[in-house]
Design brief:
Blueprint: H1 16-28, H2 36-49, E1 53-57, H3 60-70, E2 78-82, H4 88-95, E3 99-103, H5 114-120, E4 125-131, H6 140-150, E5 153-157, E6 165-166, E7 169-170, E8 177-181, E9 194-198, H7 201-210, H8 243-274, E10 280-281, E11 289-290, E12 296-300, H9 306-315, E13 321-322, H10 340-348, E14 349-352, H11 360-374
Parallel strand pairs: 2-3, 2-4, 4-5, 5-8
Antiparallel strand pairs: 1-9, 6-7, 6-11, 8-9, 10-12, 12-14, 13-14
The chain binds pyridoxal-5'-phosphate (PLP).
Amino acid sequence: MLATRQVALGQPTVGEEEIEALREVFASGWLSGAGPTCVAFEGELAAATGTAHALATSNCGSSLHLALQVLGAGPGDEVIVADYTFPATGHSVMWTGATPRFADVRPDIGTIDVDAAAALVNERTVGIIAVDMVGQPADYDELAALCRSRGLWLMEDAACSAGATYKGRPAGSLADLAAFSFHGRKGITAGEGGALVGDDATRMDLARKLHTYGIAPAVSREGSSALAVPSFDMAGYNYRMSDVQAAMMRVQLTRLPALVAARTSAADGYAERLGDVEGIALPVVAEDRTHPYQSYLVTTDDSVDRDAVVMALRERGVGSNFGTYASHLQPVYGTQDVCPVSARLFTTQFALPMHANLVADDLDYVAEQLRAVLADPAVRR
Ligand SMILES: *Cc1c(COP(=O)(O)O)cnc(C)c1O
């Protein structure tokens, strides 16, 4: 099969403005982490997410780890985690010595099923990590009510949800603490990077200390009149974002509304072109929230061999992949938890190209190729 066009599954949107910001940070001489450019980015990110405090970090995984530590999760504790996610969510719980318990998800939007979460609560449970599924927020009002009634904390894995809203509130502000990813496959990116956001100053101060080996960041000692020699009272980590990354992130954050609008328009374009195709269901967006489309996930029905569709699309120049992971099926966790909805999404969903640089000709091509693939008896059963 000769592809007449290549459409990438994902693509960052970066250009001259980011290059200019890199020139400036190079000229400043401060390239290492937690410096003045990180501080500036943190203020802008807190404002954009409607939170009191933001901490720039090395990635989403380190942000989740910091959050779990400031919330006090440790050996003997259980943390309820949304099952259908990139396994960084479950891994972060493992890093603290606590046990992840996997809750099944909603069949329509793939976010944590609140009843499934409630059924896992026991005397060892300390909190819940909801995941904004490829960007679409979970049911935070119901989750907050559950957590309040059972004395649990609530975390938001907002790795994919920069720019999303839930009942008009921005992603990042929907739980006690939220963790973002700025990996190259996310909506805004510095190649790698992350952030922790939250309103509680005590927790965020502790996270800041832990993210730089357990002392206050060097920038806080700049310009002091006496020699400041910090003393270490905890074994923190290096989970810092570099100021080079922060320079890029400041530009990316200003682009965020336009990038979300471009992805939304691509999603609308797919809906127009593919709404009538038999054998697949297009993504659903709950009425009270917005979807930033970190990925565009299509669900196949029983008549379609998902793996064959992905491979045939790739052959035709259309970037495609499976959706995301059913965590409870990953051997690392050795769990007895059962999540049939998540297990089904894991084998029936696939991703179509989604990024802010897609043009109408790309959407036409993808739709045409997907129709041709699904018309082929080789992908049917
Ligand atoms: C990408 C992703 C992560 C991991 O992000 P990193 O920045 O690579 O650590 C965590 N959770 C979810 C839901 C993700 O999609």
